[in-house]
Amino acid sequence: MATMRVAQVPRPHAPLEIVERPIPNPGPGWVRIKVQACGICHSDSLIKEGAWPGIEYPRVPGHEVAGVIDAVGSGVPGFAPGQRVGVGWHGGYCGHCDHCRRGEFFACVTGQVTGISFDGGYGEYMVAPASAVARMPADLPPVDAAPLMCAGITTFNALRNSGARPGDVVAVLGLGGLGHLGVQYAAKMGFLTVGIARGKDKQPLALKLGASVYIDNQAQDPAGELQKLGGAKVILATVTSGEAMSAVQGGLAVNGTLMVIGAADSLKVSPLLLLSGCRSIKGWYSGTSIDSEDTLTFSARSGVRSMNETFPLERANEAYERMMSGKARFRVVLTMGNQ
Length: 339
Known about the structure:
six-stranded parallel β-sheet, single chain, 15 strands, 25% helix, 339 residues, alpha/beta
């Protein structure tokens, strides 16, 4: 029986362990992917620490997957062995619940999440529902593509659904794993892009990524600086600090939106600010497989790229700890040697 290497979480709070498993076969409606690269996301800590209800262990994490289809189950039109594909957080949808019937596939009642509901991409092979799979452009290397399946789609999809139009002022709060992509997407979409982060030392990076203006929220009042520009049509909040989000909301223009994609514990909001300018605060789910496909295509065409640190699969524990340290610049990606 053919086997593969995977990095699995054997039980909550345990280190990742490299084990040999049989290569799985795809069932009806599923495909098998030879994984070439898989990003490590902070959300993987939900599996590692047992924070997601109902996870079955051992479990292989990983929802930033890039690879090649090498087997297709029955009843899977449109996919074939040899196709370059990616798989993200969204783990497919049933197609018949009320949300799916309304086209709200991200809210499908099955709630499937790659690497949580079924084994993810920390391994040489994985199987996934065809509805979770995105086609990947031929000229996008796997290591570049992998982080776009979560960090990329989350920022890209939030911005393109934010209501901002080319020429509008759009601010990106935070220049980390999400924010360094958000600035690139905002600039490539034609927004007057403002980068906001802590410290003057972040300015060169913000400008290099495409920001026209940089605001150091340690030394400046970010809300006041945004109002000097006429106010932001959209502020994309990528940080996990509710305090930092609260500090920028006053920088919204009339009819402006604070688009929240950073998982902060709480956020203080001024009702008067919302009322006086028809302003709003909105969260945005990353997206489904077709949104991932759009993200990959746009990134390949426009030159948006994630800044990555790569590790081989056998160093998965070291890679995970590097991600959790917050010191990585800016995404951590596992490679499988399956190029």
